[in-house]
Structure formats: C-alpha cells, structure tokens
Protein: Melanoma cell adhesion molecule b
Organism: Gasterosteus aculeatus aculeatus
Amino acid sequence: MAARNTVSLLVGLLALLSTWGVAAKVEVSMEDRVEVFKGETTPITCMFTLPEGVSGVIIEWFYVTKRGEKQSLYYQDPSKKVVTKGTQFTDRMSVNGTVASGVIVMTISDVQVDDGVEFICSIRDLVEGTANGRTTLKVFAKPDLPTIEGVKTGFSINEHSLSKIGTCEVKNGFPKPNITWYRNKTPVRPAPGVLEVVPSSILGSNGLFTVKSELNMVVKKEDKDDLFYCEINFFVPAGWGMTETSAINITVYYPSTAVDVWVESPKGIIKEGDSIELHCRGNGNMPSSILTFHHNGEDYTPENNVMVFHNVTRLSNGVYECISTDTDTFKEIKGKTVVFVNYLDAAVVVPEDTVLLDLGGELTATCNALSSLQTETVWMKFGEEVSRGHSLILKNVTFDSAGTYLCLVTVEGMETNGTLNVKVQGPPQIMKSDHTEMEESSETTVNLSCNVRGFPTPSVIWITADGTILKAESEVEREGEVMSVVRIDVTSDITASCKASNALGTDSLTFNIKATKIPAKKIRKEGTGVVIAVVIICILLLAILGSVLYFLYKKGKICGRSGKQSLTKEKSGKDNIVVEMKNDNTEEAVLLGVNGEKQTPRNQ
C-alpha cells in the first residue's frame, strides 16, 4: 500500500514538473525496509523518473554481501535482460516492469533469514547519469512454543546459597527472542547473590536462534507456594509477539515448628466400642521427619499420618501425643489432644429378678445404670410404656399388674436394659360370662369355656349337677392363668359348673342349659302343607295333558286311521267305559272296553 502511494505521488510530481516546464533529472525512490516472514514471497519495488526524450536507459539490481561488497543481481538495457548467475537469489528472483511505467519490481520467493541484506536499484542514463535507491530486507521467524523444566528434587532452606529453580527454552526464532522470568505473575528482579538469571543462546545451522534462561535463587520457606513461568517476546513484521510457558512450583523442605493432633472420627462424642481415627500433621515439610503417637506409655506408628484405635473403652481415655522427629537433627516437636470415651454400664434393677405380691399390695422398684452422661429411663410392659423415670411404683396390684417389666436406659446412642418379673398371688378368679343361661335344641353340642386367673396357678374341673365330672376338651395353662373348654351333648336340661382352686381359695361358675324339643303339631302342619302342594302340581300336569290330547283329536291324529273319526261316550255298568269308533268305509263297529277288550254290539 505504501509503495503504491509513493508511485502515485511520484507520477503526480512528474506530471506537475512537466506542466511547469521544469527540467527533471533521473530520480529513484524505494522503501527504507521491507519486512517478511521466513518462507514467504516478497516484492521489492523500485520507482524512478526520467527526463523527456531519454532513451537507452540501463537498469541494474545489486545487493550488499555480509562482507560489505556490492554484488550484481540483474542487468537490463534496451536490447537485453540478464539475471546474474551464481548468487543466493538467482533461482528465486524475478524482475518485472518497464521503463515507460517508471516502476521495476524484483520479487524474491521462499525468503530465508540469510536474505536479510540491503538491495540497490540503479537507473543509469548515458546522458543524465546514474541514480540509486536502497531497501533493506528484514526477515523474521516465529519461534516454536517455549518449554520450561523445573528441578525435580526439593529444596532445603539455605539463606546463603543459590539453588537452580528451572530452565526455560525457546527454539527456532529470528531475530533472537527474549525470555523474561515471572513469579506469581510478577517479573522477577535479579539481585546478585539472591536471585540471578543466566541467559544463553545458540545460532543453529538453519540460521535460527535457540535461547535458554536459567533461574537461580536463594530458597526460603515463603517460596513454597510460588508459581514460576517464562514469557517469550519476539519480533514479527510491523510489531512483536508474545507467548508463555506453563507454570511450575517448587518443593521446599523446612522443619516443623508446631504439630496438630485431632480426632477425625467419630464426630461428636466417643462411646465405648467405637473406633477412633486420630490425625497428626506438622506445619513443616521435611522428608527426614517421622511421626509417632504416644499414649499410656506405649508408642504407635501411624500410616499416612493417621492412627486408628479400634473398640475403645473408658481405659482408652487420656492424652494422645504426636511427636514429629527430624532424623537428621533429632529435634522433636510435640502436639497432643485429649480423648474421653463415654460409657454406659449394665442396668441394675432393684429388687432383682422376681417379686411376689399379694392382691392389693404395693411395689416400688428402681432401675439405674452407671454412665458418664445423663441417662433417660423408661419402663415398658408388652411393648408399651408404663412409666418414665428410674422408679416404677405399683399400687393396689391386681392380677393385671403381673408380668415382665422391661427397664430401658438410653443415652447418646448407647442403650442398656434390665427386667423385673412381678407375680401377684391370690385365690382363683373366674372371669364372668354373659352366657351362663342358655337354651339349646336337643341333639346339639355346645362348648363351654372358663377363664381363670390366680397364683399359684389354679386347677380347673368341670362337674354336672348330679356330680358327674366332665373331661375338658382343651386346656391352655399359663403362669397365673388357665383357659379350659368342655364340650357337652345336649339331650336334656343340664347344669355344669367350672370349679377352680389353688392353695389360697376356690371359685366357680355355673352354666344352666335348657334343652328344647320341636312340637308335634308343628310337624303335622308342615306335613299337610307338603301334601297340598304336591296335589296342586299333579292337577296342573293333568290339565296340560288333557289340553294336548284334545288338540291332537281335533287335528285327526288319534287312533292311527285316516278319514273321519268320532268318539262317543256312553254309560255302562260299573267300571265299564265303552268307546265306539266308526268309520264311513266299514260297517263293523268295534267296541273296546276300558281294559282294551273287544266287545260285541249286543254288549253295548
């Protein structure tokens, strides 16, 4: 774009001079510098002006070698164009343009870093003389991505000597790239004996630079969390570029000045039977340091700074020490924590085991469990809460008060229990029934049941009014209670008694069963009704049958003969019913008796 503007400016200037009639000499104009990336193609433009009427112009291109010598590249006159052979540009250059246009362009392809030289465009007229223009070609190569390598080993704190932190390297750049070290996003500031940067570079056979930079510094404890990286700056056409390496950190070894010990689990209170996990950590970082737990005169070696104690008891209470020892200096740093194991002993019930009470008596029982914490006590019977607190108070006891009482003591996830068996002694008590008076039909069977409570457990017998002892069908006996069932065949009125007894008394319950029979009159009425129903059904069936026969007679389908037939009914002697059958085609009359006998007309 700049070349085109220059050309336009010169052409305009020449036209202006020509208009004013000013005599012009040979003049050449070129850019001071042309910048290009390695491997690209670049044009180098030479613009010139000639006086009017000039002919026989000679155009030449030269370049200045590294030794400062002027080397010919191209020659052109009105009769020929010649490219100089044997130069580094011979096979990669071309020249275009005419004298008339005032512009000659030399194009160089596949530019290399060695091509960064000064080029001369020479325009010579045999009359007006020679004019030269100069352009310097600047070649750039963008470097590869940089690398950083930190020292793998750790650093011990030493306030008087430098330690190598790492090395940054960037390859294949041109011109030579620049490396700047950063610590935590801030450029490092070299200071002799404290922080030093040592750069180095190599020019490769390809003409490109490899640059290295080594960082050395006095390592302090405060450097343990620092991040180091490098920034690479390099030139590009019309500007500059930048790239960065990844960051590295360093391992700093320093002794502990304090040790922390804590219970990692369980969270909250510790109970007997738990497993406790103790952690220990020093605030230093020394590979030569070892950790040891100490408790009740015994030493324990943790794994990865963790110590687990299983199934702890109250004997595990006390101070737990963690000792960090530097094996190089044998210096010890200690930390400690206190562990308290909470406990809950077995419940103690007073009175113990079983207590025997009289009906209407009283009882006060207590339940306690020794614990390091405040406990809560609940009394249960048959799965239901009957009392809350350490004491159980029973007044005016009955047989319902008997049974097993569970004392449940709880505290912070711990639980224990005890039991108390209460027995209430007294004479038998038969539970009253609403069905002691009953009526039952004869020839049936009834079950009578008798539920008795008492202690000692009563014995039960069944007896009738006439003194007959009945055998129980079934009998279920539990402590202080009996359920007895007897089966009785009812044939007549009967009285049966359930009698219960133990050492303290007796009790009985009487059942009166009245046998009932079905009345005879009722039976006859029921039989007469059945007979009447049967007779009505038969009459209906006969009526239906008569209707069918009459219908068939009208249709002429009775007696098995064709033609007109008639039936005549006349009186006869006792039990004689005569049917006369006549036919128009015969003179004979056949008389049939009731019994199917043939009769003569005389008998008729």
